[in-house]
Amino acid sequence: MRAWALAEWALVPLRLFLGVTFIYASFQKLDNPNFFNARSPISIQQQLAASVRVSPIHALLSPLVGSAVAIGWTISIAELAIGLGALLGLWTRVAALGGAILSFSLFLTVSFHATPYFTGADIVFFFAWLPLLVAGGGSRLSLDARVAKRAAAKSNLPSPELVPIPFARVQELCGQYAKGRCALRQGLDCDAAVCPVLLGPRAPLATRGAIDSVDRRALVMGATTAAAVGVGALVAGGAVAGVARLIGGAKAPVAGNSLGAGATTPTTAPSSSTPTTAGSSTGTLLGKASQVPVGQAATFTIPSSGDPGIVVHTVSGQFVAYDAVCPHAGCTVGYAGSSDVFVCPCHGSQFQVNNGNVLNGPAPRGLTPLKIVEGANGNLYLQ
Ligand code: FES
Questions:
Q1: HEC states along the chain?
Q2: To bridge 120 with a disulfide, which of 88, 114, 132, 178 should be the other Cys (CB 3.0-4.6 Å)?
Q3: Residue 251 has what pLDDT?
Q4: Per-residue pLDDT, 119
Q5: What is the pLDDT of residue 45?
C-alpha cells in the first residue's frame, strides 16, 4: 500500500524537470536577441544552415532555411507551451506528444551525429517524454487530475482518483464481472472509477450518457484552463522578449565576415594550428587580411572538404584558422569575441582560439587546425 501511494508521485520529478527545462529553453531563446541575429553563431539561422549540412533529413530542411526566424519563434513558443503543460500537469499527454515530436526533430536535425549517442540530449529527452505520453500527468500536483475530479463532482459521480487495490482481485471476487462487463452497471464496461463494489452505496448507477457528460465537462474545463494558462504564458513570453530587446540582450558572439575562397591548389592541413607568417602567396586565396580586423573572425569554405572554415585575427596580430565543424555532432562553431573562444551553438561546446582544444564539452576532441598564411600582397592563403 505504501509503495503504491509513493508510486503516485513517480511522475512528478519527471514533469518538474521536463517542464522547467522546456520553459527555460524557451526563455533562453526569447530573451536573447542573438538567437534571431543571423550573424551570431548561436542564431537559429546559423543552426538551421549547419543542420542542412549534417542532418540525415537535410533535403527536408533546405527549403526551410528562408523561414528560419519563423521557425525560431515557433520552437520558442512550442517549448513554452510544452513546458507549462508538463509542469502544471495540464493536457499532459498533448504536451508530452509535442515534447516528443520536438525532441525527435532536434535529434534528427542537431544531435544525430553526437558520439557517443547519449551525449546528445535530444534522444534522451525524446524517451523521457514517453512515460508522460503513455500515463498522462498522474494524480499528484496535476491540473488534469483536478479537472477530472471537479468534472466528476459536478456530474454527481465519484472521484476518478486511483485506489491502491489490485483491480483484478476485485473483479475476481465481486461476482458481477464477466468478459469485461459489469452486471451491476447494466452491462457497461467494468470500470474501477465507478465500481459499485469499491464505492458501495455511494456508487452511482452510471449510464453511458453520464460518463460521456463527465468527459465532455472535463474537456471543456481543461480547455478553459489551458487557454487561460496559454494567454498568461504568451504575455509573460512577450514581456521577456520585449524587455530583452529594450535592454539590448546578451553580447553577441558573431561569426564575422565571410571570405571568398579563391582557386589555387589546396594542400593537406597540418597537425597543429600554425599562425600566419607573411611572405608566402601560395595555396588557396581566401581574401584580404584587412577583411578580418583584430579581435574578429571570418568564415570561408575549405575547398578540399567543403567544410566551413573559420579564421580569427588574434589580438597578438596573428591569424589562426580551423575547420569549423564541431567534432561532437557536426554543427558549425562560431567565434565569441567577448570571451575569445569558439562556441558551438548546438550543445555549447567551447574551444580555445590559440590551439582549438576543448574548453567545455560535450565535444570529444578539439577543432581541426588549418595552416593559413598572410602573403606579402596582404592576402590570406589556406595552405
Ligand atoms: S555539435 Fe554538440 S557541441 Fe557541437
A1: CHHHHHHCCCHHHHHHHHHHHHHHHHHHHHCCHHHHCCCCCCCHHHHHHHHHHHCCCHHHHHHHHHHHHHHHHHHHHHHHHHHHHHHHCCCHHHHHHHHHHHHHHHHHHHHCCCCCHHHCHHHHHHHHHHHHHHHCCCCCCCHHHHHHHHHHHHCCCCCCCCCCCCHHHHHHHHCCEECCEEHHHCCCECCHHHCHHHHHHHCCCCCHHHHHHHHHHHHHHHHHHHHHHHHHHHHHHHHHHHHHHHCCCCCCCCCCEECCCCCCCCCCCCCCCECCCCECCCCEEEEEHHHCCCCCEEEEECCCCCCEEEEEECCCCCEEEEECECCCCCCECEEECCCCEEECCCCCCEEECCCCCEEECCCCCCCCEEEEEEECCCEEEEC
A2: 114
A3: 42
A4: 79
A5: 85
Q: In angstroms, what is the span from residue 119 Cα to ligand 1's centroid?
A: 9
pLDDT score at 73: 92
Ligand 1 atom with the smallest distance to the CA of 361 is 3
Bridge-based pairing state of the strands 297-301 and 257-258: parallel
* CA 196 / ligand 1 centre spacing (Å): 57
* Entry pTM: 0.63
| Residue nearest (by alpha carbon) to ligand 1 atom 1 | 329
Q: Which pLDDT tens digit goes with each residue over 216-275?
A: 777 887 788 888 887 887 777 777 777 766 665 444 444 445 565 433 333 333 334 444
Residue 254: predicted pLDDT? 43
257-382: CATH, from 2.102.10.10, 2.60.120.380, 1.10.287.3510, 3.40.50.1970:
2.102.10.10
> Is the CB of 110 inside a 6 Å radius of any atom of ligand 1?
no
Per-domain boundaries in the chain: 2-141+224-246, 257-382
Question: Does ligand 1 lie within 6 Å of residue 321's CB atom?
Answer: no
The pLDDT of residue 262: 36
